[in-house]
């Protein structure tokens, strides 16, 4: 099983878009995928049609629930969800009272039947709090979506520094799976310059795939469908299929 935290401390970086559509593309390739939604906004949960769940990530982290108790189906075949229920809004406060709070998810996943899935993708909040630290501590790999805008570059640098701190203090096994440029407008020189900057900084850790700006990606959540179901011939679907192929290609290494 591969466990990837999908994180970026800057909002609008396409974390949820990447979580949902990468999960769908991996499932299309025959992988069994579990999405754990740690973002209290619950966007991945809603997009995957799991918004009515009674139990979810909060119960798993704080109430002693087992993984099977909080895992439900989704609108995407082959993808299961641990939902962000409204109770997750209070998770930061609840976990702050515990010793080793940032390791709660790691402990629970190790004690659960997580091997039922080939991939666990953890969607994270756009802040560096206890929930994001839980994702980075539980995951073996970090995947960073980055908006192709110059203001996004500083946020990536900060996240990589945080990753180093987490690796030193909490999770020595954490590695960078890769950085993926998202919302790339190929019509502008600005986007190309940002992608070039990312490639220079993350040489060897940058996915070749770029997620192009595409209106269909913005429409798909309203229909509770991944881009692969909503418009399988769109550039968004092609891009996330290409990203999934790259991620799968990393399996041997």
Helices and strands, with pairings:
Elements: E1 2-6, H1 15-28, E2 33-37, H2 43-47, H3 57-62, H4 67-70, E3 71-72, E4 79-82, H5 91-96, H6 104-110, E5 119-123, H7 130-138, E6 141-147, H8 152-169, E7 175-184, H9 189-201, E8 206-212, H10 215-219, H11 227-230, H12 235-249
Parallel strand pairs: 1-5, 1-6, 2-4, 2-5, 6-7, 7-8
Antiparallel strand pairs: 3-4
Helix pairs in contact: 1-12, 6-7
Word description of this protein:
There is one protein chain. Strand 3 and strand 4 form a beta hairpin. The protein is 42% helix and 18% strand. An eight-stranded mixed beta sheet has the order 3-4-2-5-1-6-7-8, sandwiched between helices. With 253 residues, it is α/β, with parallel strands linked by helices. It has a single domain (2-247), classed as 3-Layer(aba) Sandwich (Rossmann fold). It is built from twelve helices and eight strands. The mean pLDDT is 93.
